Structures are given as structure tokens and as C-alpha cells.
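Lab channel / #folding
Pinned by the channel admin:
"Please post every new chain as: sequence first, then the C-alpha cells as a reply. Keep commentary short and put observations after the output so the thread stays searchable."

First post following the new format, from NK:
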Amino acid sequence: MRITDYNELLKLGGKEEISLSENEVALYSPDLKNDKPELKDALSKYIKSDNTIKIAQNEYKLYPNIIYSTLTLFIGN
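Reply from TO:
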């Protein structure tokens, strides 16, 4: 999801937007907020150790926090 789309949803939900630097990606996983503490801890350590990830031959720095905000929109009839 593009950061502009995510931030628009955050804004609609009254939540604070996030900003990413160029060549930076964020990990979004609402399931990790309360579940799977071992995985959450491992991912947090990986993110904070200045590691990068490669996507489609491009290298990206990781946003320093895992994003947990659940974004749910309900559309009526």
C-alpha cells in the first residue's frame, strides 16, 4: 500500500499520519500487537539494528517501528 493511501486512511480515522524517507518501507502487522510476542520481539530487534530489505532488486531501509494501527472502513448501502 502506498504511504499516501495509508495516511489518508489514518487521517479519516482521526489517527496520526506517518512519514517515510526515500527508500524506506514500513512493516504493517496488526496481528503482532497482542499476539506472537516472540515474533514481535525478533522483528523489532531486526528493524532497530539498521538492517535493510531487498524488494525487486531495490534495497530499502526499514521504518523504526512496526505499524499496528488497524484500518477498517465500513461502507453503508
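NK: The helical segments are 3-12, 37-48.
TO: also worth noting, The chain has two helices and three strands.
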